[in-house]
Amino acid sequence: PLSAAATRVEEKTSRIPADELFSKDDMLRIMLVSSANDAAMALAEAVGRRYDAFLFQDAIDIFVARARARFAILGLNDTSFQSPSGLDHENHYTTAHDLFLLTSYIMRVHPRLWDMTREPDAVITSQNNSRTFNLVTTNTLLGEFPALIGGKTGLTDGAKETLMLLYPIGRMKDGQDTRIAVIIILASEDRFGDGRRIIRWLEQTFNK
What is the pLDDT of residue 175? Predict the structure, then answer.
């Protein structure tokens, strides 16, 4: 469920009332399609509860510890993970290289997550109250570039505008597989303008 504690996180939130119960996939959609921090906290809380956490903060702490352990295995050595919401914290940071490693891992192991980010909108229904909620993507480039494989937006005062995009760039020499460009934009003043320019350059350079 979307607990009351999870809904108290700072913007950006889904504004869905507390205690609405959703499937895991729909909670992921709330987080990935509409970039809702309350959904990120609720998912992290659910993981912590599976490991017998009773208090909300204990559940979040368990999730953070497990995420850090996984990041170490993946070689994200320049990442310091503090909170599922990704909100500004003096010890919460990462790099373009580590984000590339994480993006590549998700493509290999959890590609459905990128599929969800390609949804321009979605309608979800709570399992306990049968209430419907409309989700709208925060990625305005989806309508402009239908070939996008996936993407994720981000925005905080400290990080400024951020954007990750996956875009196909032609084919390998054997003609079998489409290559995928991973675009990572950090500390931008105009993430969508920057993303648009990079995609157009990729199309002119590789998709002739």
Answer: 56
